[in-house]
Design a protein that fits this description.
The protein contains 8 helices and 12 strands. By secondary structure, it is of the alpha/beta class. The chain folds into 2 domains: about 140 residues, Rossmann fold (3-Layer(aba) Sandwich), CATH 3.40.50; about 120 residues, HUPs (Rossmann fold), CATH 3.40.50.620. The strands form 2 sheets. Strands 5-2-1-6-7-12-11-8-9-10 form a 10-stranded mixed β-sheet, with helices on both faces. Helix 4 links the parallel strand 6 and strand 7.
Length: about 280
């Protein structure tokens, strides 16, 4: 039985993370660990908003702390009810230390981690990827499913393949974690620079691997910039799709994969992205 971790900010609860987590837990008959990152240093209020002429208002501070506690408890109660209703086997963790450290530690003992694109656990305005998400994607010990703000059932999968070991490892992890996707269409997309021509890296080997795991794959080779060509491809093929990618920010990067590639997809589309390290 797989163990899926779904990570939440109890003060800004992500409904889509809940929906994707329950959807996949049911599909996989997996055990769901719901992690509320109740970081003691992170609050819904800013301390300077509570300052009066003679210092911090103790009554306002206590009221704000109580409201945060109530909101976190309410979020946990609601997802507890939903999981029971849906027949999900689950547990809830309330991790109260530094959020990124807690979640990275949870990832060591997990098969898959689900989290919303926009989590940041900070008062600062940050575009994707936030410092929190960047650190998580770079250092996680298990594959990550980044999910958008709205939920859609997944009808097809798109694997951006660059021939690197990290890229191949990603599709192997995806196949092992999600065997039910074998019956769905899979687009394998390679993007070469203009001078490399219409060439699929390790053509026979990658097709041999893909065909063992997926029943309806197609293979497409595009020429040009990865960010530009991927966006153009997704504009046509993105409906109810999940994107599969290799490495993010580690020492040994994929041939053309970098954080800007993920950023380009997130800014243009509202689709889940599966990422895995080698």
């Amino acid at each position: 039985m797989l163990k899926i971790v779904a990570a939440f900010d109890g003060l800004k609860f992500s409904l889509s993370t809940q929906q994707y987590a329950i959807y996949l837990a049911k599909k996989l008959d997996a055990f769901l660990t719901i992690v509320f990152l109740d970081d003691k240093t992170y609050t819904s209020y800013k301390i300077y908003d509570l300052v009066l002429a003679d210092g911090v208002s103790e009554s306002k501070l206590k009221q704000a702390q109580n409201e945060d506690q109530i909101n976190r408890q309410y979020a946990a109660q609601q997802i507890n009810k939903i999981c029971i209703k849906e027949g999900i086997r689950f547990t809830i963790h309330h991790d109260q230390n530094y959020a990124i450290n807690e979640l990275l530690h949870e990832s060591v003992f997990s098969d898959l981690l689900i989290i919303n694109y926009n989590e940041k656990f900070s008062h600062h305005e940050e575009e994707f990827p936030s410092k929190f998400i960047s650190n998580l994607l770079s250092e996680s010990s298990c594959p990550i499913l980044l999910v958008p703000n709205s939920f859609s059932p997944i009808d097809k999968n798109i694997f951006f393949y660059d021939g690197s070991p990290t890229s191949v490892y990603a599709i192997k992890m995806f196949a092992q974690l999600f065997p039910f996707f074998a019956q769905m269409p899979l687009d394998v997309v390679a993007i070469n620079s203009s001078q490399n021509g219409n060439y699929l890296y390790d053509n026979l080997l990658i097709k041999e691997l893909i065909n063992r795991h997926f029943h309806y794959p197609t293979f497409t080779v595009l020429k040009g910039s990865p960010e530009i060509e991927a966006i153009d491809f997704l504009k046509i093929e993105k409906k109810n799709a999940m994107v599969i990618l290799g490495s993010y920010g580690r020492t040994k990067l994929s041939r053309w994969f970098k954080s800007s590639f993920v950023e380009a997809i997130v800014k243009e589309f509202s689709i889940p992205i599966f990422l895995s390290h080698h």
